[in-house]
Amino acid sequence: MSPSSSFTPVIPGSGLPAGTPPAATPKKIPHRGGPVNPTVDALRAKFGGAIQRVDVVWGETSVVVERSRVADIVRWLHDDPEQAYVYLSDVTAVEFRDVEQPLEVVWHLRSLAFRRFIRLKALLPKGTPLEVPSVYPIFKSADWMERECFDMFGIKFVGHPDLRRLLMWEGYKEGFPLRKDFPLRGRFSRAEQLRQALAANPEARYSKEELSIADAFEDLPQDMRARLRSGEKTGE
Amino acid sequence: MATIKRTVEVELSTTGLDAQGRPQRVPLAVAEDGSTVAVAAPPSLEPELEGEHMLINIGPQHPATHGVLRLVLELDGETVVRCIPHIGYLHCGFEKIGEYRQYNQIIPWTDREDYLNSIGNNVAFALNAERLFGIEITERCTVLRVIAMELSRIISHLVWLGTTCIDIGAFTPFLWLFQERENVYALLERWIGARLTTTATRIGGMAADLPNGWTEQLQTFITLFPKTLDEVDRVLTRNGIWVGRTIGLGAMTAEEALNYGLSGAMLRASGVAYDVRKDFPYLDYETYDFDVPVGTNGDVYDRFLVRFEELRQSVRILEQALRRLPDGPVNVDDHRVILPPKSKATSEMESMIHHFKQVMEGPRPPIGEAYVAVESPKGEKGYYMVSDGTSKPVRWRIRPPSFVNLSAIPRMVEGHLLSDVIAINASIDIVMGEIDR
């Protein structure tokens, strides 16, 4: 099969100057310190005070940024041809065992053209609303990652068009499982968890939006119609 | 323009080609001048039903969803208008459990997320933990882990191709491929003692060194395996039905694929040559000579071609790894993480205390964090761990590649036929254990 003539593959490392040696497995990485990702200087020049702290831990550059500016910073990193962070590896959050320490929302970004990796962090101190801007308008891949993060930590990503629970079901009442105040075995007793599981009607797991596709609302059992009318979401 | 509609029987034995020499979908309509044209839709028999949409629920208990994926589809006739995926039926809280386990105790959990690539996950997790501890593994261990990862890639791709064949309607390649998978499992069983849940690595080394005669057994496998690949190649790659059921489906452009965060064969089929082994190497992958296959159209057929070529490249890497496998110790000489030999632990007081503390308290990395990604068969598999200096991680995050790949399924299936949803879903190579964790 002959490839179409207009096709040009996207080659990682293409932004590097000619003669740059190919990437190599990192060896003897220091715990702290070491070479800083050159993007940091550009970030400092562009965003100044929004860049709060820069650490290099085990060879990876972490940048703590002001939480309200996250989406701007990610958009600039994505759009600027000198940076070209076109790949969002991960969005997640960290809560520490120390209750005083703020929650961290973590973005892992890759610049394929320059073979760079950067970690952005936003700190959410306890007692403040757990909200950060969504990067969904920039990266479609953030869709499920942000939904999962909301599901597990209760962090609201402002600007996400459809921030629903993802892994847990919509009617899940025990809270946010990956928070440190959530016990390993769940908040409710085993008996209560079993009771809730048995009471759930597995047939009734369509969202109102989905049911509107086929005008199926009137065909539902009485109890489910009542629950949906009262505002319960069962989209799982 | 008058069209001649070929019958399916004719099409089964021959592949239709377009002007560029690309196979076409079947059934084909051929114009009188020999060029292929699309078949016009027949007039509707029930015009009063036009515009009425139907809700179809696939899964979570459906053999073609590869586990417990559930797709709610809005159909206009047989065309998908909207797709709403639901996941979470297999959620077991791996990440939560990891916060209550010592580092070595987490390794068995990594077997069970992407269970087709369990030994690869073991290696990825060990690499991440070693980064946190600041450990450099030995030469022999590095090569052993490369062998482990490539065997695991072969297993995963064989299962993917076998099950996708079944989904699309071919049965024979499934049997041939699963026979080869059995051979790899026999190798793993001799080495590790387990087939599926391997728990093969330890922080700083491996659970076991290779048994006597193992490398010869692997050599036999890599001599015979390409013959099976050639046979499968012969029955699939230019097969009219296979091509017809896969080409042009779920196509993603390079920009879209990057924006949706696809990785692995999904991304490379769209023309982005991103392979973690080449671009952010680990385990000295940069010293192996292998190629990264890249597709041009990003459709299901290209994903098949890319994965199929990766099987051959894995064999190349295995050959090189076997040639360079050095002698020497497998485990690092680091008393922080490695247990003393059993004979010493049962005869010397100091070793016994060391063994006891190692098992009961567990090794403690310094405060820090690390994100280590490897090229798993599904794509970029990342582990992100944060340590606060205790023997258990504060956070153990799994970045599952098929989770992110699956999140693009609405974009890929909308506009296609219901039967194509199965082919597109199969091409993503999902493992629900990894997606739901």
Summarize the structure.
The complex is a heterodimer of chains A (236) and B (437). Chain A is α/β, with parallel strands linked by helices and 236 residues long.
Characterise the protein shown here.
The complex is a heterodimer of chains A (236) and B (437). Chain A has 236 residues and is an alpha/beta fold. Chain A has a domain of 128 residues: Beta Polymerase, domain 2 (2-Layer Sandwich), CATH 3.30.460.80. Chain A has six helices and seven strands, in the order αββαββββαβααα. In chain A, a hairpin with a 2-residue loop joins strand 1 and strand 2. The N terminus of chain A is likely disordered. Chain B has 437 residues and is of the alpha+beta class. Chain B has two domains: 35 residues, no CATH class; 343 residues, Cytochrome-c3 Hydrogenase, chain B. Helix content of chain B is 46%, strand content 13%. The longest helix of chain B has 30 residues. The N terminus of chain B is likely disordered. The interface between A and B is large, with 68 and 72 residues.
Spell out the blueprint of helices and strands.
The complex is a heterodimer of chains A (236) and B (437).
Chain A: H1 39-47, E1 51-57, E2 60-65, H2 70-79, E3 87-94, E4 103-111, E5 116-124, E6 131-133, H3 142-153, E7 156-158, H4 190-199, H5 208-213, H6 222-229
Parallel strand pairs in A: 2-5, 6-7
Antiparallel strand pairs in A: 1-2, 3-4, 4-5
Chain B: E1 3-5, H1 8-13, E2 29-31, E3 36-37, E4 53-58, E5 70-76, E6 79-86, H2 94-98, H3 103-111, H4 118-133, H5 139-168, H6 172-192, E7 201-202, E8 205-206, H7 214-236, H8 240-246, H9 254-259, H10 265-269, H11 276-279, H12 300-324, H13 342-345, H14 349-360, E9 368-376, E10 379-387, E11 395-399, H15 401-406, H16 409-413, H17 418-427, H18 432-436
Antiparallel strand pairs in B: 1-2, 2-3, 4-5, 5-6, 7-8, 9-10, 10-11
Helix pairs in contact in B: 3-4, 4-5, 5-6, 5-12, 5-17, 6-7, 7-12
